[in-house]
């Protein structure tokens, strides 16, 4: 069984965009790879101001859209993993930030 500390460390490293020390330096802008970019996996997902259902709706993202993961809200024990992810995305020429349910922008469905 994997301990919570190991899971937290691995997820933290994924969200921080850490690379191995031996990796060659990238010529791309530093922010481009600082956070994972994932595709939306749900048909449509509501993006809200806070990670709860009663929060104000900002926008809707659709399956296949690319979003940048900024962080996550961990589930309460005894369940593990994230319930919501904080994302950044572009709509109508604007960069927006909000919260979406984890199942709709899954960290393991990287783009």
Question: Can you describe what's shown?
Answer:
The protein is mainly β. It has one domain. Helices cover 12% and strands 37% of the residues. The chain contains one helix and six strands. It has one helix at residues 4-16; strands at residues 37-39, 44-48, 57-62, 66-74, 82-91, 94-101. The strands form two sheets. A four-stranded antiparallel sheet has the order 1-4-5-6, with no helix packed on it. A hairpin with a 2-residue loop joins strand 5 (82-91) and strand 6. The longest helix is centred in the first third of the chain and has 13 residues, at 4-16. The radius of gyration is 15 Å and the shape is globular. The two termini are 29 Å apart.
Question: In summary, what is this structure?
Answer:
The protein has 111 residues and is mainly beta.
- Please write the string of helix (H) and strand (E) elements: HEEEEEE
Task: Please tell me how large the radius of gyration is.
Answer: 15 Å
Ends apart, CA distance between termini: 29 Å
What percentage of residues falls in helices of 4 or more residues?
10-25%
Beta percentage is: 35-45%
Main β-sheet, spatial strand arrangement: 1-4-5-6
Task: Compute the average pLDDT.
Answer: 75
- What is the number of strand segments? 6
Structural class: mainly beta
Largest sheet: 4 strands, antiparallel
In DSSP terms (H or I, runs of 4 or more residues), the helix count works out at 1
Parts with pLDDT < 50 across at least 5 consecutive residues: 18-33
Q: What is the general shape? A: globular
Domain module tally = 1
């Amino acid at each position: 069984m994997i301990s919570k500390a190991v899971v937290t460390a691995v997820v933290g490293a994924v969200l921080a965009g850490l690379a191995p020390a031996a990796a060659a330096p990238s010529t791309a802008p530093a922010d481009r790879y600082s956070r994972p970019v994932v595709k939306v996996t749900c048909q449509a997902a509501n993006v809200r101001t806070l990670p709860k259902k009663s929060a104000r709706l900002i926008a809707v993202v659709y399956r296949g859209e690319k979003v940048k993961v900024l962080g996550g809200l961990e589930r309460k024990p005894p369940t593990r993993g994230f319930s919501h992810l904080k994302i950044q995305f572009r709509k109508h020429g604007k960069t927006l930030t909000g919260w979406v349910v984890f199942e709709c922008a899954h960290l393991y469905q990287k783009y």
